[in-house]
Design brief:
By secondary structure, this protein is an alpha/beta fold. The chain has two domains: about 130 residues, 3-Layer(aba) Sandwich (D-Maltodextrin-Binding Protein, domain 2); about 100 residues, 3-Layer(aba) Sandwich (D-Maltodextrin-Binding Protein, domain 2). The strands form five sheets. The chain has a five-stranded mixed β-sheet with strand order 11-10-12-9-13, with helices on both faces. Strands 5-1-6 form a three-stranded parallel β-sheet, with helices on both faces. A hairpin with a 5-residue loop joins β3 and β4. Bound molecules: arginine. Arginine binds next to β2.
Length: about 260
C-alpha cells in the first residue's frame, strides 16, 4: 500500500513539473525564449536613433541592454514607425515597446507600463526670427508633429491646425520648409535634433523656453506580462537608485530628470 501511494505521488509530482515546464509564467517563457523582442521607432535621439552603420543606439537601448543581461536574455530590435509600436505590442507581435513612450491614461487602457525611468516635456521649435515666442502664440497656427505621439494629441486638444508626419525628420523638415509655423516635439529630442541640424550652418532652429507638459517615459508590454514588468521594475529601480540611468543620460549629454519624488 505504501509503495502504491509513493508511486501515485511520484506520478502526480512528475505531471505537475512537466506542466510547469510547458506552460510557465510569462517571465519564464521569455527567459526560455532567450530574447526580448522590442519594437522601436529609431528617429528619436538621444533615446533611439540609427548610427552611421545602421545600428539602433541610444539611452533606451543602453538601459535595455542592462535589463536584458539581468533577465538572462538577449535584446532583439525591430524597427517601425512610431504609430505601429503600441498596436504591435498590444497585439503580442513584440515583447516590449521602446520608443520614448510617454505614459498616458489612454495608453494604459491598451498596454501595461513599467515604472517610469525619466520625465520629459513637449517643446516648441521654430525657425529663427519667427514671431512665435511661446505657447500663447500658437493659437490659430499650423504645427507639425509625429503621428500617434502625445505632441499630436496635445496640439489637437489645444485646437492648433496639425500636420502629422510618420517620421520625426519629416516633422522637422516641415518647419524648415515653412510648411508649418512650428514643430511640437519632446524636449530632449528637440534639443538633440536641433543641435545636430544647427551645427550644419544655414537657417537656424530655435527651441522656445517653455516646457508645456510633464511626461513620464516608460516601456510598454502587453497585458498578462505583470510578472515580467514586476521583475523589470526591480531592475529599473536599482538603476535609478545607484545612478546608472543618470550616467547613461550623461553619456548622451542629455539632462536627466528623475521620476522619483523628493
Ligand atoms: N513621448 C512621445 C509619445 O510618447 C513621443 C515619442 C516618439 N518616439 C519615437 N521614437 N519617435 O508620444
Amino acid at each position: 500500500m505504501k509503495k502504491l501511494i509513493a508511486i501515485v505521488l511520484c506520478v502526480i509530482l512528475t505531471l505537475t513539473m512537466a506542466g510547469c515546464g510547458t506552460k510557465g509564467t510569462p517571465l519564464k517563457k521569455l527567459q526560455k525564449a532567450g530574447k526580448l523582442v522590442i519594437a522601436t521607432s529609431p528617429d528619436f535621439p538621444p533615446f533611439e536613433s540609427l548610427s552611421g552603420d545602421g545600428k539602433v543606439e541610444g539611452i533606451e537601448i543602453d538601459i535595455l541592454e542592462i535589463v536584458c543581461k539581468e533577465l538572462g536574455v538577449t535584446l532583439e530590435i525591430q524597427q517601425m514607425d512610431f504609430d505601429s509600436v503600441l498596436p504591435g505590442v498590444q497585439a503580442g507581435k513584440y515583447d516590449m515597446g521602446v520608443s520614448g513612450i510617454s505614459v498616458t491614461e489612454k495608453r494604459q487602457k491598451n498596454v501595461l507600463f513599467t515604472e517610469p525611468y525619466c520625465l520629459a516635456a513637449q517643446a516648441i521649435v521654430v525657425k529663427e526670427g519667427s514671431p512665435i515666442t511661446g505657447k500663447a502664440d500658437l493659437t490659430g497656427k499650423t504645427v507639425s508633429v509625429q503621428t500617434g505621439t502625445t505632441a499630436e494629441s496635445f496640439c489637437m486638444e489645444n485646437g492648433y491646425t496639425v500636420n502629422a508626419y510618420a517620421a520625426n525628420n519629416d516633422a522637422q523638415s516641415a518647419v524648415l520648409q515653412g510648411k508649418v509655423d512650428a514643430w511640437v516635439i519632446d524636449d530632449l529630442t528637440a534639443a538633440d535634433m536641433v543641435k545636430t541640424y544647427n551645427a550644419q550652418g544655414g537657417d537656424q532652429l530655435v527651441i522656445l523656453d517653455e516646457a508645456m507638459t510633464t511626461e513620464p517615459y516608460a516601456f510598454a508590454m502587453a497585458f498578462g506580462s505583470e510578472d515580467t514588468i514586476a521583475k523589470i521594475n526591480t531592475i529599473l529601480e536599482g538603476m535609478l537608485a545607484d545612478g546608472t540611468i543618470a550616467e547613461i543620460f550623461q553619456k548622451y549629454e542629455a539632462p536627466f530628470t528623475s521620476p522619483l519624488k523628493g
